[in-house]
Amino acid sequence: MMKTYDSKTLLKTFSPEIENTSLTWKLTILAGLVVFLIGMLGLWRQITGGHIVTGMRDNVVWGIYIVNFIFFMGLSYAGALISGTLVLFKSEWRRPVIRIAELITVISILIGPFYILLCVGRLDRLYFLALYPRIQSPIAWDVIAISTDIIGCILFLYLSLIQDLALLRDYEDLRVPHWKRKLYKILALGYTDTPEQRKHLKTARNVMAAMIIAIAIIVYSVLAWLFGVTLQPGWHSTIFGPYFVIAAVYSGTGLMIIIMWIYRKVYHLEEFITKKHFEYVGYLLLIVGAFYGYFTFCDYLTKWYGSQKMDSLLIDKLFSQYYWLFIFANYIGILVPIIIIGISKFRTINSIFFAAVLTVLSLWVNRYLIVVPTLETPFLPIQDVRPAWLRYSATWVEWSLLAAGVAIFVVLLMLASKFIPIVSVSEMMESSEQKNTSKNEVQG
């Protein structure tokens, strides 16, 4: 039977991570900021030197910037779908891990849009998108959808934090600076956990959970249509909408397992994040991975069997120039996680973590294979036949900005752990209250 908890016990357990800052934490933050600053140096080099300092040319006008944009946005939508679904279905096991999904959602969606800005040659004209939007353009659809999603995801996270913020505000033994305690007071909005307040907050969370699920599906479908409605080899496909949504959930589930594993190790949360949680999220990874594998097979089968000239050239390129990347993304990254999680004797916490790492890496490579080989196979080739113009090769500027995005993601996750408990105190208390109520009813 799961242990029951009261607020004081939980706050005493989780407050050290908010109160104390270890040397390892500081060094990790410093390393992340150094990587981020190197990325900013690359950005400055691009702004002053132009896109010629990147690997993007006349054919491949998008490179790993768009790959990163799709990838981070997918992580965000996956976090929204997972957290929203767990809240609506009232899954009891969700309570220790729900906040991780919510943080993935918000942090990813704050980072992702910056990558698409890096592809814009004239950032000084960016405001034209707001002043003179062309509603027929999928780019305008994406701007509207992402803006809506950012607001919805931040509001959903904030609603889930209010109860914990009020608990931290009222916890007298919490040793934090005065400004942080004052911040808790402001953000708690006078919440005192009365039955009426709790009812309204729960209703608001359920409404927002339903909304962000719908928004996530719509927004990532719109993002997929940026490719699907474009007449390019490998892109013009009706399957891209659901394919992108499934792929997003696959990568987001993998990242959730990775972060669960790291937080469990760093903050010694073995009592709260147990093998059961890894197995349940792993089952989700297995199911979504099977669907993702099916969609991938359907996509490539129809392109290969149709034997259209440009699609055939693209398939030939994937099985020659990109052979090992293709094998890793579409075989290893799908079959290995399914085997590890599907066979019980392989299903340990560390093996599920390994499967999740493979999942996340393979999904990034998959995005790369969607973007780059297609742009290297245009319907109307350019006359210049220099290899540098025909084949894409990312420069240090692009890799530095990729590393900067990953670094700032880690930094923001670490900073979040210094302001709020990674395991939701209010969720754990609600679980304990429900168990006590059920126990009293049985005894009565």
Note down, in words, how this protein is organized.
The chain has 444 residues and is an all-alpha fold. The protein has one domain: Formate dehydrogenase/DMSO reductase fold (Up-down Bundle). 73% of the residues lie in helices and 0% in strands. The protein has 16 helices and no strands. The two termini are 20 Å apart. The mean pLDDT is 85.
User: How is the CATH topology named?
Assistant: Formate dehydrogenase/DMSO reductase fold
Order of helices and strands: HHHHHHHHHHHHHHHH
As residue ranges, the low-confidence spans are: none
Mean pLDDT across all amino acids: 85
Amount of beta strand: under 5%
Q: Number of DSSP strands? A: 0
CATH architecture: Up-down Bundle
First and last CA, distance: 20 Å
Number of helices: 16
The CATH class name reads Mainly Alpha
Q: Which word captures the global form? A: globular
CATH superfamily: Formate dehydrogenase/DMSO reductase domain
Number of domains: 1
Query: What share of the residues lie within helices?
Result: over 70%
Largest sheet: none
Taking all Cα atoms into account, the compactness measure Rg is 23 Å
**Structural class label:** mainly alpha
